[in-house]
Design goal:
The chain is mainly alpha-helical and 123 residues long. It has five helices and no strands.
Length: 123
Amino acid sequence: MFADLAAALGLIRQGGLRALAVTTARRVPAIADVPLMTETVTPGFEAYSWVNWWVPARTPDAVVQRLNRVAVQALNQADVQTRGAEAGFLLEGTNVADAEAFVRREVQKWSTLIRSRNIRSES
């Protein structure tokens, strides 16, 4: 099964689940001995949950940039990095342009997959 690492990490550590691979682009320190999916089964495979912070579309750029700086500073604090790593997160702060580009790439990747496989919701 595929599971969100932060949710499954407790069971992995307790031996209730065996982690075969992680689907991130780099190894996860919390389970550093678990290989990447791209190293084992499917070269180039990368799929993971991620979080971005969002603001309303008409937020002034100066405010967006300030919020971004504060968020990145918070993410870069040693205690935040340590706690995030222990919980199975790869905490990375970036600039607004790179975050927007990342979201565009993710939307394109998954939209293309959904269309090419004719995936439909059953709701």
